[in-house]
Amino acid sequence: MNLDELRATAAARHDTCAQIKKMIVSRLDLPIEPAWITDDQPLFGRGLELDSLDVLELYVAIEAEFGVALYDSDMSVFGSVSRLADHVNPALVEQAPTGSA
Amino acid sequence: MESLTSPVKAAHPDGAVYGTVLDAEVALRFSTLDAEYEAIRERAALLDLSGERIIELSGGGATDFAQKVLARDVEYLTAERCMTSLVLAEDGTVVDQVVVWGREDGLLLESSTGAGTRLLEHLRAHAEPGVEITDRTAEHALFGLEGPYAWGVVGRLIDGELAALPFESVVDTQWDGVDIVFARTGVTGEYGYKVLVPRESAERLWTKALEQTVPAGQEAVELAMLEVRQPVVRHEAGGGVDVLEMGAGWLVDITKDEFVGRDAVVAAFEGTAERRTVGFSGGTEVPAPGTPVTVGGETIGEVVHAVHSVGLKSALGLLRLPPDLAAAGLKLTVGDTEVTTLTSPYVTPKSWSTPII
């Protein structure tokens, strides 16, 4: 990949991450700007400090906004915004080089 | 200020390898990195956190002072809770990352490894009437338990009910007739606990805990922290980077009205960052900090910090790149090696699929 192609790949991920951040802030009514959440920020624990009730809300929100059903057997989906982006937009993984994500 | 050494050094396993981390002499390895890492990720590891200075803020002005020097809101931090926060300089650079323990008569700040002297000097430079800043490190020993089955050790060693406490809970309790402070607060993504014990009882507790755990040194702990993108300030905060460039903006509460460094952080949030941090893996050689990151021969960034990841069986580290290229899923060249940028966590903790029973 040349630099322009890398920028385009990165921009696609940033767009999906921005959508997810906006959804999280809106659905959970968080008192922050979506842009304050970083792509790598943990969503649980000392990250965004979400709890199990928040997760239930996010399951519903993700299916409504991205048409993707997630299951509680794999909590690693919520490891970070960027990790979640891989699941709501599989094209990000497909276009990424082998070994990523 | 005197360099910190472990009060239980005499009880450490033979062959432990020591090194200096800022103001502390710490055990880098007790046995091998692989064995200690395996304990953290698969079973239960015992951590000697003697390199972390314990600083008490007390007096009528303690909470107000803490509000001023901590980048997150601690106004309602009760004696049953703890939290992690950054301490910033006026220019927004990171002085330290601390765990703040709520106490009935003030707060305890736990520095990161070896950074306690710098933290203490910073606190004293900002001291105000009505607050007492006291170094309590010599009175205690601090131990950690980390691992997907650390909860079992807590149950057998102290009290089973403590194992399932909510994250960042603090309990005053007893172990073997000794008053201890117990917290559920880990750093590796696995189940994690800390025990603050009077120094005179430290060796007894260490020895007892060692019957059920594997001791893990600084190298294994920092690797496990990196794998779940928990900041290690001493590796990530140098070179004048601000908290956003470091990727630690989530340890700052920008909605808080006032704290040291806030103006700089607000300016960073409102400005256009020149650099962002993203994880990478690839190759077997561990690149040194500052190694150029290139695309088609053009330098676009540099390595911040890297180690060999036991879990990934390759080099793992952090890159600082222009914001439009700081994303997972890119193939870049570090030195002479092709690497891939990653989503975090880079290794999924076993504890996320291991219930406490």
Automatic annotation (TrEMBL), chain A:
Recorded hits in Pfam families, A to Z, give:
PP-binding
- Residue span(s) of domain Carrier: 14-92
Q: What residue stretch is flagged as signal peptide?
A: none
Instruction: Tell me the InterPro entries matching this sequence.
Output: ACP-like_sf, PP-bd_ACP
Question: So which domain of life are we looking at?
Answer: Bacteria
Q: Mind telling me what this protein is named?
A: Acyl carrier protein
What's the source species' lineage? Bacteria, Bacillati, Actinomycetota, Actinomycetes, Pseudonocardiales
Automatic annotation (TrEMBL), chain B:
Where in this chain does the record put each GCVT N-terminal domain? 14-256
Gene3D superfamilies, per this entry? Answer: Probable tRNA modification gtpase trme, domain 1
Q: What is one Gene Ontology biological process annotated in the Swiss-Prot or TrEMBL record?
A: methylation
Output the superkingdom of the source species. Bacteria
| Keyword list, A-Z | Methyltransferase, Transferase
**Domain CAF17 C-terminal per the UniProt entry, residue ranges:** 275-341
Tell me which Pfam families the record gives. Answer: Beta-barrel_CAF17_C, GCV_T
Q: Which GO terms describe its molecular function?
A: methyltransferase activity
Q: PANTHER family, alphabetically?
A: AMINOMETHYLTRANSFERASE, AMINOMETHYLTRANSFERASE, MITOCHONDRIAL
Q: What is this protein called?
A: Aminomethyltransferase
Q: Which organism is it from?
A: Saccharothrix saharensis
